[in-house]
């Protein structure tokens, strides 16, 4: 491998000096996410391998031994492999045996700019990052003098249109959980009016009973995934294993549209299906108002863990209209879809909503977490109601700032939109040749957020890994792509070529 951004035995500073001059990038004059940005196959990372390379059986001996050793102190039953993150670079992941994989899954959609990106290494080696690491602040009580500038220059610079405030959190589940809290506090404050907490509320809330602990609910959708914490698990409905043995709130689930593909041939049926689901949402809100009033509806732009399920722009506008009509908050969970992967910085930008969501949650590719909001009423009426020790991590905010600046400088959102069209077109051709292996191809016009169903899903996943391609799966039969924003056409060609060879051999 020609280049390692981080090398054993070197300091961070020397590693940066070695790596940074060799990073090839698009013109620094390309500041906006616009079509004017010119991209080259070698625009981003020098030193990447020419392609994937698998030289051992999988798992190899080093991975097998390493996982066995790790199992003594850490549960490895969900581990896919054991990664050498020092050798991994750009779009390529290297395992403990030296096998090289083109990573089309990117740590469950969480790596935006590739492995060992030198610009991110620079960002976390600055004095402000070192201060945040060595003297980590409890942000709610002791924010740093730099915190406002860090937010304005990064997290809030990336904020969705109409949302100008943020509550920072630790992870995607935490982001959704705090958004749910904000929704319930907002609803309780509305119901209470201008009066103070009553004695009955104060006394009953300490016993987890009403009226202090009201029976509000958060509506989610069938097959949704919003996290694994106690509150978010009650809105997660993708797989039973996530929820088993964990107490849950009795909260409503609305049907998510089950679209038929190809979309062009099933327009009338899909419109009827989406209207059926919207009618059910309205009916459920009315029904549950009598027992557990719905404070908010939460939805993913694409139901990722639940099988990569899509819906139309009109469906989501219908949800926005219903929540406005019913005085219910609208939360868009962009933990997996956010930060450029769908060809827009935020996936809900595709919907062209007449009014913005009330809250948008984020994590994964942002390398930070939290929720955006615009309505001042979503700030609790008193201190400490939305609070914990850390309230996020300033180091993660610094990383998000660096990520946003690189995405903007390199025009990666527009690039991802175009590359996604290229990959989708290639998969359409493969689907025409192998209709039994590629079914319900979806994600057209949604960047690289592409998926399809296959009855041989698990066999295909194993075969792609054996050929050095790392892909993802979800739901019962879906294969999904979640590559990094720096993926190039020659990477896409490798993926499509290997996929064609696999399908031809089955």
TrEMBL record:
Essential cofactor(s): pyridoxal 5'-phosphate
InterPro entries cross-referenced by the UniProt entry: 4NH2But_aminotransferase_euk, Aminotrans_3, Aminotrans_3_PPA_site, PyrdxlP-dep_Trfase, PyrdxlP-dep_Trfase_major, PyrdxlP-dep_Trfase_small
Enzyme class: transferase
Recorded GO CC terms: mitochondrion
Molecular function terms from GO: 4-aminobutyrate:2-oxoglutarate transaminase activity; pyridoxal phosphate binding
Domain of life: Eukaryota
Single GO BP term: gamma-aminobutyric acid catabolic process
Gene3D superfamilies: Aspartate Aminotransferase, domain 1, Type I PLP-dependent aspartate aminotransferase-like (Major domain)
Keywords tagged on the record: Aminotransferase, Pyridoxal phosphate, Transferase
Catalytic activity: 4-aminobutanoate + 2-oxoglutarate = succinate semialdehyde + L-glutamate
EC number: 2.6.1.19
Protein family per UniProt: Belongs to the class-III pyridoxal-phosphate-dependent aminotransferase family.
Protein name: 4-aminobutyrate aminotransferase
Organism: Thyridium curvatum
């Amino acid at each position: 491998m020609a280049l390692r951004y981080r090398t054993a035995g070197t300091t961070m500073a020397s590693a940066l000096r070695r790596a940074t001059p060799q990073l090839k990038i698009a013109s620094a004059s390309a500041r906006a996410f616009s079509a004017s940005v010119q991209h080259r196959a070698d625009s981003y990372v020098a030193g990447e391998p020419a392609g994937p390379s698998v030289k051992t059986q999988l798992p190899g001996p080093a991975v097998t031994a390493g996982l066995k050793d790790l199992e003594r102190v850490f549960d490895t039953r969900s581990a896919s492999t054991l990664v050498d993150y020092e050798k991994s670079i750009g779009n390529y992941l290297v395992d403990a045996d030296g096998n090289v994989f083109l990573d089309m899954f990117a740590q469950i959609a969480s790596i935006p700019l590739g492995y060992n990106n030198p610009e991110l290494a620079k960002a976390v080696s600055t004095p402000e990052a070192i201060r945040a690491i060595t003297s980590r602040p409890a942000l709610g009580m002791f924010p740093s003098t730099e915190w406002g500038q860090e937010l304005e220059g990064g997290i809030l610079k990336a904020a969705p249109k109409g949302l100008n405030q943020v509550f920072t959190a630790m992870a995607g589940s935490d982001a959704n959980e705090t958004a749910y809290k904000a929704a319930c506090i907002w609803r309780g404050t509305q119901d209470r009016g201008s009066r103070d907490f009553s004695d009955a509320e104060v006394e009953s809330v300490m016993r987890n009973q009403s009226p202090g602990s009201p029976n509000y609910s958060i509506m989610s959708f069938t097959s949704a995934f919003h996290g694994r914490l106690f509150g978010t698990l009650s809105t997660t409905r993708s797989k039973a294993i996530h929820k088993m043995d964990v107490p849950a709130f009795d909260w409503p689930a609305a049907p998510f549209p089950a679209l038929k593909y190809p979309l062009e041939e099933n327009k009338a049926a899909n419109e009827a299906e989406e209207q059926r689901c919207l009618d059910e949402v309205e009916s459920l809100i009315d029904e549950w108002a009598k027992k557990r009033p719905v404070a908010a509806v939460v939805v993913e732009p694409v139901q990722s863990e639940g099988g990569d399920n899509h819906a139309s722009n009109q469906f989501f506008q219908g949800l926005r209209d219903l929540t406005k009509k019913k005085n219910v908050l609208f939360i868009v969970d962009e933990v997996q879809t956010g930060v450029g992967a769908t060809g827009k910085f935020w996936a809900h930008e595709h919907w062209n909503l007449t009014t913005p969501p009330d809250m948008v949650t984020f994590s994964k590719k942002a390398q930070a977490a939290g929720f955006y909001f615009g309505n001042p009423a979503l700030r609790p009426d008193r201190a400490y109601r939305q609070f914990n020790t850390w309230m996020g991590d300033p180091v993660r905010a610094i990383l998000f700032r660096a990520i946003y600046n690189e995405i903007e400088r390199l025009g990666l959102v527009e690039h991802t939109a175009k590359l996604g069209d290229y990959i989708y077109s290639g998969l359409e051709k493969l689907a025409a040749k192998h209709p039994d292996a590629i079914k319900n191809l979806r994600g057209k016009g949604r960047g690289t957020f592409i998926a399809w169903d296959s009855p041989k899903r698990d066999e295909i996943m194993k075969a792609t890994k054996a050929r050095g391609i790392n892909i993802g799966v979800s739901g019962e039969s879906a294969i999904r792509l979640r590559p990094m924003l720096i993926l190039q056409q020659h990477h896409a060609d490798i993926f499509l070529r290997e996929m064609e060879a696999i399908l031809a051999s089955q």
